[in-house]
Amino acid sequence: MAGGGFAASSAGQEFEAKITPIVIISCIMAATGGLMFGYDVGVSGGVTSMPPFLKKFFPVVYRRTQEQGIDSNYCKYDNQGLQLFTSSLYLAGLTATFAASYTTRKFGRRPSMLIAGVFFIIGTILNGAAQDLAMLIIGRILLGCGVGFANQAVPLFLSEIAPTRIRGGLNILFQLNITIGILFASLVNYGTNKITGGWGWRVSLGLAGLPAGLLTVGALLVVETPNSLVERGLLEEGKAVLRRIRGTDNVEPEFLELVEASRIAKEVKHPFRNLLKRRNRPQLIIAVALQIFQQFTGINAIMFYAPVLFNTLGFGNDAALYSAVITGAVNVVSTVVSIYSVDKVGRRMLLLQAGVQMFLSQVVIAVILGLKVKDHSDDLHKGFAIFVVVLVCTYVAAFAWSWGPLGWLIPSETFPLETRSAGQSVTVCTNLLFTFVIAQGFLSMLCHFKFGIFLFFSGWVLIMSFFVLFLLPETKNIPIEEMTERVWKQHWLWKRFMDDYHIEGNQIAGDDLKKNGHANGFDPISQL
């Protein structure tokens, strides 16, 4: 049943729009790109804790885990090849983002999602059938290419097809599917670990074909966004799609604004150069900082290597995988909390509250491990073990309703029209780069820092919380093209950077561009 309502325009008027079934279905299908990403994140930590997998591909690590006293508890899994298995996906995703940027602009959002699905399927086949480390890494690289295309196209698709008033919630749907994918991977790992014969890891890696297939089928079934069609000159098709997704024939005002937004966007010949101009630095600084901070909360270190981490702390293999399932479930539930609260309590409040919660939980974990887990003996009794899992869940919950979804949402709604495409590319690239850094370095950091790894990440949480307190403005319920007037020009620091727009030698005052912009996130992908 379609819900009635209006989509707000940037100029302050309201466009008639219903929440139609085609919008809901399209968004659910598109967001399966997040499901695939999440499964890839969750499955790697599980299989790297399975003895048969280690024995086949990483025999040095396998011997360390089997022989008592041969190495520090914290250093059993410190192996560059093992970390490369996890991190190669993100380095490939970073590289693929540039090609995805061109494809999404030139051919539309649907073809990019379809390409992502194909990459995912081929990578899954290679991983599930891997005979040696090279085949395994090539499969992960192809999965990474899929991540690059999906992360570029899906958030754009969701923001462009959704009515403004539910844009935040539908964007977080992508993050929610990431968390569901992580949970699904943890459940699969827990089950396949019990398979006798040593081939359970193949099932874990092969089942990634399910979300890959869903994304591929979804890309074939969903409609292209009207923004993309108008951008490519298909005006009549764009208007027809707009009627379908808004559930009304009264789309002329919104359509005209789309056309005008497209015209202005095409005047921007060098979006990346434009991004570096003084007036765009606040958005650029915040987008880059949020991506770096998101990774330095330590969340991906926990989600990548949760079973390995719990094994390190003295949990049995089954108990480690079971604990990873619990943290995965908390991750999903807490992301749902964010969907319902982000447009009510605001972005800043969620980030600041979560900062306190993450800081305290990480410090307490560090104290417990410092007292109870030594290099060659683990004295983590059952009571303490359960307490550590509760603290990890407390930390994961705080991240999942704050830095997880908001690290993506805030950059997507703060860039002005002429730099939004370039801004999205920089956001994705920065995120994948630092995800790679953390994935490649975490097990080595665990070996050298020991329990101090949690103090390291808690220190970063403190820094990022002060950044939010003093430098991040609130963007709740503010149309995208009104950000300059209502947010940046009102901020104590960033208002100093707010000058007129300069596009190809012509000055367009901020108010004029605001008038001609489009609140539903029109985002022509950057010219490379």
Mean pLDDT: 81
**CATH fold-level assignment:** Growth Hormone, Chain: A
Strand content: under 5%
Largest sheet: 2 strands, antiparallel
Number of strands: 4
Low-confidence stretches: 1-13, 501-528
Strand order of the largest sheet: 1-2
**How many helices does DSSP assign?**
24
The backbone outline, from C-alpha atoms, is globular
Q: What is the CATH homology-level superfamily?
A: MFS general substrate transporter like domains
Count of domain modules = 1
What would you call the structural class? mainly alpha
Radius of gyration: 23 Å
Straight-line N-to-C gap: 42 Å
Describe the structure.
- Helices cover 71% and strands 2% of the residues.
- With 528 residues, the protein is mainly alpha-helical.
- The chain starts with 5 loop residues before the first strand and ends in a 12-residue tail after the last helix.
Short synopsis of the structure:
The chain has 528 residues and is mostly helical.
Any key phrases for this structure?
Growth Hormone, Chain: A, disordered C terminus, mainly alpha, two-stranded antiparallel sheet, 24 helices, disordered N terminus, 2% strand, 4 strands, 528 residues
Blueprint (SSEs and pairs):
Blueprint (H helix, E strand, L loop, with lengths): L5 E3 L5 E3 L4 H10 L1 H16 L3 H7 L1 H8 L13 H28 L1 H20 L4 H29 L5 H26 L7 H7 L2 H13 L4 H6 L3 H12 L5 H15 L4 H5 L5 H16 L2 H14 L4 H25 L5 H26 L9 H19 L2 H12 L5 H30 L2 H20 L11 H4 L14 E3 L2 E3 L1 H7 L12
Helix pairs in contact: 1-7, 2-7, 2-8, 2-10, 2-16, 3-4, 5-6, 5-7, 5-21, 6-7, 6-9, 6-10, 7-8, 8-9, 8-17, 8-20, 15-20, 15-21, 15-22, 16-17, 16-21, 17-19, 18-19, 18-22, 20-21
